[in-house]
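Q: My labmate handed me this sequence with no annotations at all. I'd like to see what the chain might look like in three dimensions before we decide whether it's worth expressing. Could you predict it?
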Amino acid sequence: MQSDSMETFWSFLVSFWIDGVGIGQAPGQIFGRWHLERVNRLLHGTLQDFTYNHGKDRRIWSPALGQKRDLYVYLPPGYDPKKQYPLAIFLHGAAQDEELFFQTQVRAFDQAIHEGRLMPSIIAAPNGSLKGKASLYRPATFWANSRVGNFEDYVMHDVWNFLHDNYSIMPGREYHALIGPSMGGSASFALGIKHRDRVKVAVAFMPLLNLRYVDSQGNYQGKYEPENWGYRSRVRNLEPLGRRKLFVLRFGTLYRPLFGLGNQALVGVSGINPVELMEATNLKPGEMDLYVSYGGMDEFHIANQVESFLEVARKRGLEVQVDYDPLGKHNLASGKKALPAAIDWVQKKFRAMEEKAKPPRASFFQRKALIAQ
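A: Here is what I predict for the chain of 373 residues:
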C-alpha cells in the first residue's frame, strides 16, 4: 500500500510539471539521488544507471560527441545473458533528456512485460539534449548530425555498440525498435528509415513527420487538405508553430541552432525530415514496420505533419499503423493513453517474427517415421 501511495505521489509530481507547468519533464533535483533505488524497488525488472543523476558519474563515453553522456538501460525480469532479447531505444523529445524515461515510461514498459503484453526486452534511454540536460533554451537536437553535434552517430554507433557489446540482443533487425515522443518520434522514423539495415520497427507519438509542411498559402498552422499542401521554401525564424501553456514554440527555436540562418537551413531540415527521407531513400513496402499516434487537438499542429506524411506513404504503397485520438494533445496524458495500444502492436510484430523463426512442425508421416526409428 505504501509503495502504491509513493508511486501515485511521484506520478502526480511529474504530471504537474509536464502537463501543469508545461515544461518537458520534472526537474530531476526534486526526486533526490536515491530515487533510482525507490524506482527499482517498484519494478519487476531492473533499471541500470549509466548517468550522473544519482551521486556517481557512470556515464558512457561518446566518440561522436567527444564527451560523456547519460544512459539508462532497462533489463526485463529474470534477464539471462545466455538468452537473447529484443532491443528498443527510447528517444526523448525536445526540452527533455533521459530522465523522461526514468520519470514517466519505465514502469509502463516493465508492467507490460510482467503481464505478458510485451516480450521481455532490453530498453535503452540515452540523453540527446544539446548540453546534456533538459532545457527550454535551444531545446532540440532531433538526434541528428548537425552543427551542434553528431547526435545520429551518437545513437546509431556509440549507444548501439555499447548495448551490443554489453547485453545479449537478438541479431535480427525485426527485433530492433526505435520509440519516441515528439522530436524523438520524428527521429525514430528518420533514423529508422536511414538505418533500416539494422532497425525495422519505429514507433512515434505526436511526432514531427513533415518538418517542412505548409498549406497552400504557405502557412504552417493552416489545416491539412489532401493534395493541397506543399514544402516550406522560406525560413521565418520567428514564425510560431504553436503554444503550450506559457511557451510559444517558433521555427527558429527548433532549427536555427542546428542549421543556421536563411533559406540554406532548409537543406539541413530536409536531411532529417521523415517524409523526404522516405522518398530520398526509396523506402519500399515491407521494409519498415511503422506506427504513429497523434491527436486532433495537438497544440503544435502535429496533425498537419502526420497526415501529409501519411498521404505520401499511401502513394508509395507503404502501410503505417495509425492511432488517432480526436481529443489528443501534445502532453503526457495523451502519451500515456496511447502507449498501451502501441505496446500491443509491437508485441504482435515481435511474436510474429518469433513464430516465423520456429522450425516447421513435422507432418504426421514425419512424426510416424521418427517413432518407427
